[in-house]
Amino acid sequence: MEFGMNSEPRAEFRTGFVALIGRPNVGKSTLLNVFLGNKISIVSGIPQTTRHQIRGIAHLRRAQIVFVDTPGIHRFRHKLANHLNTLARRSIEDTEVILYVVDVTRRPGPEEQKVMMVLVKQKIPIIMVLNKIDKGKKYVNDYIEGWKDIVGKREDPVAYYIPVSAQKATNIDELTEAIVSLLPEGPPFYDPQTTTDFPLHLRIADIIREKIFESLTEELPHSVAVEVEEIEDKEKVICVFAAIYVNRNSQKQIIIGKKGAFIKNVGIAARTEVEGILEKKVYLQLHVRVLKDWQSKPRILQELGYC
Ligand SMILES: Nc1nc2c(ncn2[C@@H]2O[C@H](COP(=O)(O)OP(=O)(O)OP(=O)(O)O)[C@@H](O)[C@H]2O)c(=O)[nH]1
Ligand SMILES: [Mg+2]
User: Fold this and answer.
1) In degrees rounded to 5, what are phi and psi of residue 223?
2) Over the stretch 65-74, which tens digit does the pLDDT of each residue have?
3) 11: CA distance to ligand 1 center in Å?
């Protein structure tokens, strides 16, 4: 109990789930990481980087926010993409707030309208997060007006429009405050030490995939998957064995690189990051496997944690 002349009534604790929704490459995962002050979700310039539903928990003084990062909503070509869309849509259910993230450096097109059509039909409050304002504000109004056109005479689920830069951490405090204002009162779901419930083997697989993505261009990343097959905790070192899947032999050659240089660099970068998370020396062994059309094979997708 708090007593004293100046003591204000104690504000209640607020908790809730907040889904990050938007098209590929708009900066959802970057935003998640900036909220947590910690890298949980991998980021790359290649669209469709995120393939899992990843929860990150932000612990504030009077609130606990469970952010749910999702794959970008996009047109599907095969089973994997279809699954990613389902994940994104399913994440909307059971959340208290939707962060609808858009990229203001790009003009909103028909694909954006489709996302808007999905969002306008549901009742959960939305914050439209206008991201990448460090690159200018050219299309900010196009997004706001585009949304209002779609809302028409309906009830508008958007509670706030907040321009931010996830990369430069601009306006993140304002955004956090807006989120908390929309959360219901309730006790925390997670204990204060937990920052993510993303399983370690999937997190390491994603880190390896990110390092591959960083060095590849255009189409090839969509042919790459990583599976962590074994994690062995020995006394002084943690041994991680991982397979990199590609669709064709020519892709395998690219991943291995000249005299093994590509895969070696991926291994070094991934190992360094994993050591930072585990705070222990890591031995990382990578090998490349050709698996034709893995994106359409339900069993493989399941093994990769994509289903
Ligand atoms: N200039 C600028 N770039 C940003 C900002 N936020 C993210 N990016 C860049 O945008 C690209 C995509 O970022 P991600 O966070 O991976 O985007 P995403 O929405 O999670 O993408 P998917 O997982 O593919 O759906 C990366 O190259 C980021 O560095 C920002 O505020 N400003
Ligand atoms: Mg992402």
Assistant:
1) -95, 0
2) 999 998 887 7
3) 35
CA gap 175, 172 in Å, rounded = 5
Atom of ligand 1 nearest to the CA of 69: 20
What is the end-to-end Cα distance of the chain in Å, rounded? 48
pTM: 0.91
Q: Does the beta carbon of 109 sit less than 6 angstroms from any atom of ligand 1? A: no
Q: Which atom of ligand 1 lies at the shortest distance from residue 135's CA? A: 1
Q: What is the pLDDT at residue 1?
A: 45
Asked if 140 and 110 touch (Cβ cutoff 8 Å), the reply is no
| Tokens 């030490």 sit on residue | 193
How close is the Cα of 46 to the center of ligand 1, in Å?
9
Among positive and negative, which fits the CA dihedral 299, 302, 306, 307?
positive
171: Cβ below 6 Å to ligand 1? no
pLDDT tens per residue, range 186-202: 999 999 999 999 999 99
In angstroms, the CA 223 to CA 306 distance is 14
pLDDT (tens digit per residue) in 163-186: 999 999 999 999 999 999 999 999
Q: Which of 20, 21, 25 is the pocket-test mutation for ligand 1 (most atoms within 8 Å of CB)?
A: 25
Residue 164, Cβ density class (10 Å: 0-12 exposed, 13-18 middle, ≥19 buried)? buried
CA angle 233, 236, 237 (to 5 degrees): 50
* Ligand 1, atom nearest to 105 Cα: 1
Residues of the chain falling short of pLDDT 50: 1-4
CA 185, 191, 195, 197: dihedral to nearest 10 degrees? -100
What is the 31 CA–ligand 1 centroid distance (Å)? Answer: 8
Whether 33 lines ligand 1, by a CB cut-off of 6 Å, is no
Residues with Cβ within 8 Å of residue 98, at least 6 apart in sequence? 18, 19, 21, 92, 119, 122, 124, 125, 126, 127, 157
